[in-house]
Design a protein that fits this description.
The structure is a single chain. The chain is an alpha/beta fold and 279 residues long. The protein has a 7-stranded mixed β-sheet, with helices on both faces. The protein folds into 2 domains: 2-175, 3-Layer(aba) Sandwich (Rossmann fold); 182-275. The chain is globular and about 65 Å long. It has helices at 12-21, 36-44, 52-58, 68-78, 94-98, 153-166, 177-208, 213-231, 241-254, 265-275, and strands spanning 2-7, 27-32, 61-64, 87-90, 108-114, 141-149, 169-174.
Length: 279
């Protein structure tokens, strides 16, 4: 049995991880939560919380389910007192890549981030109850993992914990910390989330021009699904000639010529610094 301490057990990611780990007999989990109200809710759900001091004293692995902007402060508080060989598990590459976490040669830093269930594997009708993040239902998801610091044998340990945290699993990918940071925030947040936000704004512009709300939503969400299937190679057929012409004509109007600078290493380093800066 491995002793794991989960920091932020009642937060957005913490709740999902708690739900996956609480019934696994090969872990003894200490659930640590700073919010008194959230601790009460965990207790009502049958989760007994532990003080930070007790959890750190027993910990062989520590899961950092806490906001990026707090990781630097909290890890500087706890890392000096950890036992040699302790594995710190981050859920996002930003703090490690930004260098805001303290370094101890005898402490392992392992990062594991979920890919979330694939768009074209969800056959259930979409709703607020759908498993959008993974680890809460039957939809499998992949996970990217990086051993940022520590002995090679700790990779298998971290990967096993990550698989249990994010189960059910489709694939486990080993990549570098920088490759993970390129994926998030540079690709999926700085670029893709921005583009998806613009998709919503385009639909709202159509509604403002008089298109009925539900007609606009049905039309746009249906076309987004089809267009993603075409672009990512799932559909097996290309865009129409008219669509291709519209893309060629309007892409320069919508995007700056150098937009891929968002995914450059200098822009990425600036982004993670901003993400990890306390408010």
């Amino acid at each position: 049995m491995m002793n794991i301490t989960l920091l932020g057990a009642g937060g957005k990611m913490g709740c999902r991880i708690t739900g996956n780990l609480r019934y696994l007999s090969h872990y003894k989990v200490d659930y640590v939560e700073a919010s008194e109200e959230t601790r009460k809710q965990l207790n009502r759900d049958g989760i007994e919380t532990t003080s930070l001091e007790e959890g750190l004293e027993r910990a062989e692995a520590i899961i950092l389910a806490i906001p990026d902007r707090l990781i630097g402060t909290i890890t500087h508080q706890i890392v000096p007192n950890l036992k040699p060989g302790t594995i710190l598990i981050g859920l996002d590459p930003a703090a490690a890549y930004a260098g805001v976490m303290p370094v101890r040669e005898d402490i392992t830093c392992f990062i594991a981030h979920p890919c979330h269930p694939r768009l074209f594997s969800d056959t259930e009708p979409a709703s607020s109850k759908s498993d959008w993040f993974g680890g809460q239902g039957t939809l499998r998801q992949s996970v990217v993992c990086a051993l940022h610091q520590g002995p090679e044998e700790h990779y298998a340990v971290g990967e096993k914990i990550a698989a249990d945290m994010y189960a059910p699993i489709l694939r486990m990918h080993r990549i570098t910390l920088e490759q993970m940071a390129v994926l998030e925030p540079a690709v999926v947040e700085s670029t893709m989330a921005t583009c998806v936000t613009v998709l919503r704004e385009a639909m709202e512009a159509a509604i403002a021009m008089g298109v009925p709300d539900q007609a606009a939503e049905d039309f746009c969400l249906g076309h987004i699904r089809t267009e993603l299937a075409i672009v990512f190679g799932f559909a097996g057929f290309p865009f129409s000639d008219g669509a291709i012409k519209a893309i060629e004509q309007n892409k320069p109007r919508i995007f700056k010529e150098d937009w891929k600078q968002v995914i450059s290493i200098p822009a990425l380093k600036e982004s993670v610094r901003d993400i990890c800066t306390p408010d």
